[in-house]
Every structure is written in C-alpha cells, then in structure tokens.
Write a structure and sequence with these properties.
Helices cover about 15% and strands about 30% of the residues. It has ten helices and 34 strands. Helix 3 runs parallel beside helix 4 and helix 9 packs parallel to helix 10. The longest helix is centred in the C-terminal third of the chain and has 21 residues. The chain is globular and about 75 Å long. The N and C termini lie far apart (about 55 Å).
Length: about 625
C-alpha cells in the first residue's frame, strides 16, 4: 500500500530534490540530473567486473556488468533519486541479488558549462555500481551510503569537440548490483526478510546525481575544524591539481576569508594540502555555536580561478566532570545534557530518500519544537543537506556508522536486550565478521565517513557499532577513529557487548525500569541511556503494514501520552541527578512495522502531545549552560 507524505504528494517528477547538494563546498557550477531516467532489470551476467572502490580485494557480490554494454530494451521510466522499490520511483519493483538494475539518461550541457574538468557526482548508490558515459566506462563504486565522483572529462571531450558551437547530447549509463544482507557488505536496517526493526531492502541510486565543472587547479576538498579555545579555525584546502600545476607557490596559494554578517573577521593565504590555523581578529567577539545559538560564520576560498563558499560554527565537544565530579557531556567546555531522539531517516514514500528538502528540514524542526537537543542518526548517512539543516537550526547529531557483516546470531544481537553479560568481539564468527574482506571494507568506510562528515558543525559524537550488528575489535576501531578525529567523543559499542572503551557507559533499556546502578556511577565514563522507550501506537490510515512493533503498546493517544509522561517523571528525569548525561528516545518517526515514533511514517500526525514532550525535555536539560556571545571559558 502506498502511503504518501505531504511532500511526496506534491512531488515534481521532472525536478525532484533540485537543491545544491553540498552546502559546505558551494561552487557556481551545477547541473542537477535528478528526474526521469530509463531503467531495466536483467539477470546478473557472467561477464562482469568488480566495482572500483573499497572492494578490499573481494569478488562475488561486488561484480557488476560492463556499463558500456547496456540492455537493448528498457522497462520504462524511473524517477531518480528514488530507489525502484519505493512508491516515488514510479516502479515499485524489488531488485533481487541475482539481478542487475540499469539506468540510462541523456543530458545536453549548457553552453560554456564544460571547463577543464567535469565531474559526475552520485550522492549514494546501493550497493555496487559501474558507470559509462558515451559508451566509455568511467569508473565504479562499492558502498551504498557514501558519495563518490567520477571524472568524465575525456569521455565527453570527443563529442564536445566535434559539435563545435552546436548543442550535443551525452549518454550516461549506470549498472547496479545489490545483494542486501546476503554478503558482508554494509546495508543498514535493510533485510530480505523484513519485519520488526528490520526494513524492506532497496537498491540503486537514492541520493542526488549531479554534474560539476571546475578548473584543473581547484578546491577539491575543504576541511574546517573550529578551535574555540584558541579563537581560531584549522583549515585544509585539498587540491589534487597542485602537483600538476608546478607545486605550491604564489599562484597556487589559497586565499581564505571568514565573515560575520558581511564583516571580515579572519583571513589568510595558505598552502593547499596543509592544515593551517587561522586566528580571528583580536577585536572580534567570537560567537560560539550551540543549539540555543546556532551561529554560523561564512567562509570563502579562492584558489587560482576557482572560488567556493562554505561555513563554520565555533564549538567544541568533549566529556568531563561537572561541579560535583560527575562525568558529563561537554559543549563549549560546559556540561550539556543531550536530550535525543533515535532518527532512522526513513520515509513512507521515498524510504531512505526524503521526498524533498523541506521534508528533511521538517524532521529537524519537529525535534527542536518538541524540546530535543540531539538526533542520533541511526545506521544511515544522510545527504549533506540534512546536516546543513542541523547546523543552521541548532541540533546536535550523533552519527552511527553503517553496519555490515554476514548473518547475525540472535544470541549475540537480541538476547542481551533482556539481560546477559558482554561477549568478546574478537569472536568474529559469532558477530557475523568472519570474513576478512568485510572487516577491511568496514575500515575503509569508517575512514571515508569521517572524511565526508568531518566539517559538520553539529556532529557531536561517533557511534561505530550498535547492538553488536557486525561488531568487531571495538577497542581497536575506537583507537583508529580517534586517530582520524580527536575532536569528538565516541560511543564504541552502543547498547551491549561493552568492551570497556569509549567515552560512554552506553545502555539500551526497553524491558525493565531504568534505575542508575552504583557500578555505573563508578565506571568513570559518561552514563548515557542511548536507547529507551519505543512506545507504540497505531494511527489507522497512517500505517503501511498490519503489524505493530513496539516495546510497549498503547491503543489511544491519551494512554500513550500518559505513559510517556510517567516514564520520564518516574525514571528518566530522576536519573539525571544520579549521573545520567544523555538520553535517546526511540524514536522520531514510525517505520514500517515499527509504530513507535513521535510522528507517523507519512509525517502527518504527531502522536504525543507536544506540551508533554517539551515538559519532559525541559526537565532533562534544565542544567544546560552554553557559552554565548564572547564567552569561551
């Protein structure tokens, strides 16, 4: 049954999600390729090759057909970037592990658009793909939740040269393979046997596809790390073309300017590919970023003929004792309670893909309006515009890594919910991580995720593993993660199978009353209830299945409202004085069988009275004190 959100109902199929997709590296060169493509399903071919990136030497599930030889006939239209399984795609057919999904479209570029380099960007393609332009293979990628870009300059060059001043049509073909959970590949909450907390599988392109033209000497990447205590920003301008252009020198120096309301407050000329600390002017009163004061500074970078814009927020994250010596989460050097929601990022009509940018914004604003200060992005990497909305609206983000691994053992991932002790995660087979290629692929994606999201202002904490789903060597992974990013705390094993590391004593409590144990207080780490609640209530006419999954079930709005209030009044709020420093209620929205959201799957009905939720969150966050204008101590 199709269940449309308000934004899905109003979708423009010719121009879905047209917004510029990379808010922290904006260049005046952009052609959006979302909209109507052709598609086809075929049997997986025997003459295949391994998709190019992050393959870790593996074969089998990574093999994808040669995109230079597409099928002779096509099945019809598909609306990109919605997976073919979803209502908004217009297809609603599931890709099987032994099938290939094909895409094709043509594009005529605006006059003068093609510069020295042309990049074809994919926000995300699930799971492995190969791409051809004008019949020439230009690259591939494996990893269904991360973006990639392919240089298609040479593939376009011959046709552009032959056309002269005439418009020329270019062809793009994408071949996709997706085996969901039949391999060790990352897949998030997708399962071929969906139900309960596991969701319907989807495949193919599910984030924006776009073209970008840029010079050889260009800002290929931009890292912005605020150093609040030092009144400075660490800046690294990545330039892949410096070596080809003669190395660093005056002509290859990047000019960086930071502005507040149009006024220049910091500026420097820096060497590309080196991290440089740029201090604010002595007479500038630095404005720290916080959920209560989400102030963003404008950033401009010029390198040769290339010019890009970005932004940065001045904040710091950490852990440390409060005035009583209790470990707390710190924001800008001060104790700050993270009152959070588990956020799966699923939609009734687009599934992993929000039907519009306004829909992405709606979720963040709803959480703010209900008094939450944090969203735990659960087992998914969102489009960058979602993080942009968190940055500008003021919402902390806890970022989960996307899980992979082979078949999970219920004794490892489910039984601990009702009370068993931790198991060593060196037991790879028990945790679904016996395959060395899968473990290597996870490490590749860990590094890529950190690089991708490093500059997000609101991202406050990393979660590498959740409830043992594909967990392995959590202490070593924590060490590697800190080497990649030493500016954010880590919840090394959220829920159970605590290996004794990380910054949090991380607990998931659904089936018993939450009472702070003395052993937790003596642990030395920050005490965090990283999942709880999950109270369910079906709102008829706003569900996509006849099933109801939740940890406690309520039949009326009034019952749900009263239960939520009692849970917080009797258990969660009193725990703050006993050391509780962060909480994550399950969850923001209903998803398929899970009808335990604050809002229905179609985002049309908020199920718990806003005043009830706000009252609970105001009690949880009553002790928060954040640095505002000019205060950095």
């Amino acid at each position: 049954m199709s269940l449309l959100t308000p934004w899905g109902e109003a979708l423009d199929a010719d121009s879905p999600l047209p917004e510029y997709p990379r808010p922290q590296l904006v260049r005046n060169s952009y052609v959006n390729l979302n909209g109507r493509w052709q598609h086809a399903f075929t049997c997986a071919q025997t003459t295949t090759q391994s998709a190019g990136q992050d393959a870790a030497g593996a074969t089998g599930p990574l093999t994808v057909a040669d995109p230079a030889h597409p099928p002779a006939t096509w099945d019809g239209e598909i609306i990109v970037p919605f997976s073919p399984e979803t209502p908004l795609s217009g297809v609603e057919r599931m890709l099987q592990p032994d099938e290939l999904l094909w895409y094709r479209r043509t594009v005529t570029l605006p006059k003068g658009f093609v510069g020295e380099r042309l990049l074809l960007h994919f926000g995300a393609v699930d799971q492995s793909c190969e791409v051809a332009v004008n019949g020439v293979r230009v690259g591939g990628h494996t990893g269904g939740f991360l973006p990639f870009a392919l240089d298609i300059t040479e593939a376009l060059a011959a046709r552009e040269a032959d056309a002269g001043d005439s418009a020329v049509e270019h062809e793009i073909v994408v071949a996709v393979r997706d085996v969901t959970d039949s391999s060790w590949l990352s897949r998030g909450k997708q399962a071929r046997k969906r139900g309960g907390i596991w969701y319907s599988p989807q495949s193919g392109i599910w984030q924006t596809v776009w073209l970008e033209s840029l010079p050889n000497l260009a800002v290929d990447g931009l890292e912005l790390t605020p150093r609040l205590d030092e009144r400075a920003v660490d800046v690294r301008v990545r330039c892949d073309g410096v070596a080809q252009s003669g190395g660093p020198g005056a002509a290859n120096t990047a000019a960086v300017t930071v502005r507040s309301g149009g006024d220049v407050v910091a500026a420097a000329s820096i060497t590309p590919n080196e991290t440089t600390r740029i201090a604010f002017a002595d007479d500038h009163e630095v404005q720290p970023w916080s959920p209560e004061h989400p102030f963003l500074y404008d950033v401009e970078v010029t390198l040769g003929d290339d010019h890009v814009t970005s932004y940065v927020g001045m904040r710091s994250f950490g852990v440390g004792p409060d005035a009583h010596g209790t470990p707390r989460m710190l924001l800008n050097g001060r104790p700050y309670f993270h009152a959070g929601l588990l956020d799966q990022g699923y939609w009734s009509d687009g599934w992993l893909t929000a039907p519009s940018d306004a829909a992405l914004e709606y979720d963040v604003q709803l959480a703010r309006d209900l008094g939450f200060t944090m969203l735990r992005k659960h087992i998914k990497i969102e489009p960058l515009r979602w993080y942009y909305h968190c940055d500008r609206l003021g919402m902390l983000v806890w970022q989960d890594m996307v899980n992979g691994g082979t078949t999970y053992n219920p004794l490892i991932i489910t039984v601990p919910a009702v009370g068993t002790g931790p198991v060593s995660d060196h037991r790879y087979k028990a945790f679904g991580r016996a395959d060395a290629a899968g473990r290597a692929s996870y490490r590749d994606e860990l590094r890529a995720t950190v690089e991708h999201l490093r500059s997000v202002v609101s991202l406050a904490l990393w979660v590498p593993f959740n409830e043992a789903w594909g967990q392995f060597d959590a202490l070593q992974i924590e060490k590697e993660l800190r080497a990649l990013d030493d500016t954010r705390p880590i919840d090394h094993a959220s829920g159970w199978h605590d290996q004794g590391g990380g910054d949090l004593k991380s607990l998931h409590v659904y089936f018993r009353a939450f009472r702070v144990k003395n052993a937790w207080r003596d642990d030395g780490r920050v005490l965090a209830l990283t999942e709880y609640g999950g109270y369910s209530h079906r709102v008829e006419g706003h569900c996509v299945t006849n099933r109801e999954f939740g940890y406690r079930k309520y039949t009326t709005d009034a019952e749900l409202d009263a239960a939520f209030a009692a849970l917080h009044d009797e258990q969660i709020v009193p725990a703050v004085a006993r050391g509780l420093a962060a909480s994550v209620y399950t969850q923001l929205s209903d998803v398929e069988d899970e009808v335990n959201g604050m809002v229905t799957y179609d985002r049309r009905v908020v199920k718990i009275a806003a005043d009830t939720v706000r009252r609970a969150n105001l009690q949880l966050t009553a002790g928060n004190s954040t640095a505002t204008k000019g205060e950095t101590s």
